[in-house]
Amino acid sequence: MSEDSHPGLSRGLTNYGDSDFARYLRLANARSMGYSTSMLRKPVVGIASTYSEFNNCHRSVPDLVKAVKRGVLAAGGLPLEFPTISLGEPYLNPTALFFRNLMAMDTEEMVRGQPMDVVVLIGGCDKTVPAQLMGALSAGLPAIQLVTGPQSTNRWRGERLGACTDCRRFWGRFRAGELNQAGIDEVEGQLVATAGTCAVMGTASTMASLSEALGMMLPGTATIPAVHADRLRAAEATGAAAMNLLRAGIRIGDVITEKSIENAIRVLLAIGGSTNAIIHLTAIAGRAGIKVSLDRMNELSDTTPVLVDLKPTGPFYMEDLHEAGGIGAVLRELKPLLHLDCMTVTGETLGQRLAAEAQYVDRNVVRALDAPLQPVGGLVALFGSLAPRGAILKRAAADPALFEKEARAIVFTSLEDLAARIDDPDLDVEPDDFLVLQNAGPLSPTAMPEAGYLPIPQKLARAGVKDMVRISDARMSGTAYGTIVLHVTPDAASGGPLAFVRTGDRIRISVADRRIDLLVDEAELAQRRQTTKLAASVPSRGYARLFHREILLADEGCDFRSLTAHPTRD
Ligand code: FES
Q1: Which residue, judged by its Cα, is nearest atom 1 of ligand 1?
Q2: Are residues 390 and 304 part of one domain?
Q3: Residues flanking ligand 1, CB < 6 Å
Q4: 502 with 528: CB under 8 angstroms?
Q5: Residues 287 and 147 in one domain
Q6: Which has the minimum average pLDDT: 3-12, 85-94, 430-439, 518-527?
Q7: Cα of 97 from ligand 1 centre, angstroms
Q8: Total number of domains in the chain
Q9: DSSP assignment, residue 190?
Q10: Edge-to-edge strands of the sheet including 44-49?
Q11: Taking the alpha carbons of 7, 13, 17, 21 in that order, is the dihedral positive or negative?
């Protein structure tokens, strides 16, 4: 490889007005790290490390970095690790999504600003993989994704459990009085037993799967458990593959295309993946100038069956999917529906990959295309007077008995209002009502938290009610389940119709018709528009101010307006 095509440490010199001096100064400093000059002339593979003690899902990253470096060195490159922001889902306030774009900016600018020829992105926890793909796409260099891999499951009193669907299941039992404080304390100690990301088909697992479907990850590596030796071998192979990517001249924009985004949506629908993923895919696509429309998602959903039944909807965990054949098995089933000419990071097309790989599949976990779990995809977008720009329902995780229904709205105006009243014994609520949460969308002060999984009011939970229709502009954890309508757009804080719903109003949903309507006449709504004060307020400084000024709504991926491929004016 010539230095011209892969300038390595000579790339993007610091500007002193004298490029020879800048190169000399950079090499003088680099030599202080003990590298020989021949090493410093090699192509540079940047390794984006997201290790953080605020992110348990990433505690194995240092071992993965070591293994990636092995692969890079063996393939003739110079591996240089660099840190970026890490986002540990349960540690961040107000929510990890608030920081996703900050991480994407950090990744983009460090990939572009530092002298590397290709980048290995090591992510895992929910927002990290989308942030890395968004940033790397905007930076435009060759890039390859590696993930920390899923956690392994554990046992508690004979019961198999793993984060975090079981976290919610046991919490529901605790709230219903079926488990006492000592019991829930014991469960707390057993839910997250290993390094890695949540053990179910939550957002992290979904985004890992979609990254493989996009062609951004080595075949078969999305599902390898975090603690399996194969995970380290995958990391080593990823380091070597980064060098091959460079030699082949494949850039990230050659891999993430309109067709590969559509493949990823197919896989999202077939695996019953997280609702968050549609926001993330929309944002990733937006960095490449590709629009993901919810109407198109509905078309794909109507023609993509559900093939995989992991928790939160089914009985299985990610380690089961791995043993059953992984994402490769899903892709092989979906083959007639996929764009097989999409390029991948190995230099093979998706079609070549699928033709070459082993055919093993465990049909208990990955169903055949002609014998699916459900004939249509896991997600559906609803539109109507309550959500003119769409809302999302994970129908794979919902109760079909609630799909065609009109009911009374019980409205909570904020998360604080929800917390204050949901368990009030005097709350006027019936099992047939719709619970509505306002002001939890992108423009709200809480920046679209995973609060859409409104708890069943305690008095109903204790009476045995397991599910109700819940509607909000919030998101929902990929590990949650129920008949939950999310991402209502425009959100309440930006003045969408959701802001004007009042307790006692009637709402109608029809999954068959893809509708969600507020049954209040226009004159009354106009009156409410005049008198309702919106919850959005402009933060006075810093990143929060930038977020508020730049954030796009859910149907545009919640990216920042100026970071998309085609920024629009305010
Ligand atoms: Fe990190 Fe679930 S908390 S993946």
Answers
A1: 125
A2: no
A3: 57, 89-90, 125-126, 163-164, 197-198, 202, 204
A4: yes
A5: yes
A6: 3-12
A7: 13
A8: 4
A9: T
A10: 78-83, 44-49, 118-123, 143-147
A11: negative
Q: What is the pLDDT of residues 34-64, one digit of tens each?
A: 999 999 999 999 999 999 999 999 999 999 9
In 467-565, which ranges are E strands?
469-472, 484-486, 506-510, 515-518
- pLDDT tens for 440-499 read 999 998 999 999 999 999 999 889 999 999 999 999 987 778 999 999 999 999 999 999
Residue 180: domain span = 154-188
Residue nearest to atom 2 of ligand 1 (CA): 198
**178 in the same domain as 48:** no
8 A C-beta contact, residue 514 and residue 381: yes
pLDDT given for residue 390 in this prediction: 98
Domain shared by 336 and 230, yes or no: yes
Number of Cβ atoms within 10 Å of the Cβ of 329? 26
147: burial class by Cβ within 10 Å (0-12, 13-18, 19+)? buried
Q: Which residue type is seen at 101?
A: N
pTM over 0.85: yes
Rounded Cα distance, 467 and 459, in Å: 13
Mean pLDDT along residues 140-161: 97
Give yes or no for residue 569 having a pLDDT over 80. no
